[in-house]
Design brief:
The chain has one domain. The chain contains 13 helices and no strands. α2 packs antiparallel against α11, α8 packs parallel to α11 and α9 packs antiparallel against α10. The two termini are 22 Å apart. By secondary structure, the chain is mainly α.
């Protein structure tokens, strides 16, 4: 049972459908975006060196970070590197394996009673699943089990959503601070126009702040925020599947009914793969190949 219960961390055997593998699409996407922008500069005969502006970077990033701290607090701001790593390394729950695990629990509980599941909990690596099943084994009222688990999911979603919102907030502040930097640069240029020949170059430098603001927002802050929001939605959906399975086991539902309830949480492609795997294995085979 230990192999089947590794539904979150992504062990060496976790190749069934979605989940179990870190998704580095955020980093890949950001790198591609930067390569595209920089490549476009060189195709236009320009170079990165022309767009280096330390003062603009200080105004845009310093201003963005400052107003973000003022908006969400220092503790939340200092947690941003951790949330970025979460977005980069997020592993979606392997829902196909989760269904197999929950159906296995349902079959065992129906045959031998709920107390027998306590032995399997020692090998269950998903904390949320282990706590939920333990509540069932302990004889907790079904409504209370649902309330406890749903409250935990709601709290988790709120925390994840706040992280995403903070990055999106910076994506809103950065372009505005870029405009502020440009205005400051233009004021300095126009207040010293004794050398008209250098005016055009000075104005070009002033607009670097706008570039930094719009670029940082659209190439970094907003994509990270959107990724975190997607991770939060996926994580909550996975835990809703677990809650449904735990409550079905507690109510003593037929394992086939438990399976049908949980399969409804899958995407159309996943359902198709799942049904095909079942048909190929004769149904109910714990070792059936569910690879996408």
């Amino acid at each position: 049972m230990a192999d089947d219960d590794n539904i979150q961390s992504g062990g060496p055997q976790q190749d069934e459908g979605d989940g179990g593998k870190a998704d580095y699409s955020l980093v890949i996407g950001i790198v591609i975006a930067f390569v595209g922008v920089i490549g476009g500069l060189y195709l236009e005969g320009s170079s990165v060196g022309k767009y280096v502006g330390p003062s603009a970077a200080v105004i845009v990033l310093g201003g963005t970070f400052g107003v973000t701290i003022g908006s969400v607090g220092l503790a939340t701001f200092l947690n941003l590197p951790k949330t970025f790593l979460h977005a980069v390394q997020y592993q979606s729950m392997n829902r196909l394996r989760a269904i197999k695990t929950l159906v296995g629990f349902a079959e065992k509980a129906r045959r031998e009673g709920l107390l027998v599941l306590e032995d399997d909990l020692r090998d269950t690596q998903d904390d949320f699943l282990r706590r939920g099943v333990q509540l069932v084994v302990d004889g907790t009222d079904p409504e209370l089990v649902k309330e406890i688990l749903r409250t935990e999911v709601d709290s988790l979603y709120e925390e994840r959503h706040q992280s995403a919102k903070t990055w999106e907030m910076m994506g809103g502040y950065a372009p505005t601070l870029g405009i502020v930097g440009t205005v400051i640069g233009l004021v300095l240029v126009l207040s010293n126009i004794s050398d008209p020949s250098s005016l055009a170059a000075s104005i070009a430098v002033a607009f670097i702040a706008t570039l930094y603001g719009v670029g940082s927002a659209n190439l970094i802050f907003l994509p990270v925020g959107a990724k975190l929001q997607g991770c939060a939605d996926d994580e909550v959906a996975g835990k809703e599947l677990l809650i449904e399975g735990i409550l079905a086991i507690q109510s003593g539902d037929n394992p086939r009914i438990v399976e049908e309830k949980l399969v409804a949480f899958l995407t159309i492609k996943q359902r198709s793969d799942y049904r095909a795997a079942q048909a190929g294995s004769g149904g109910g085979d714990a070792e059936m190949d569910l690879a996408a």
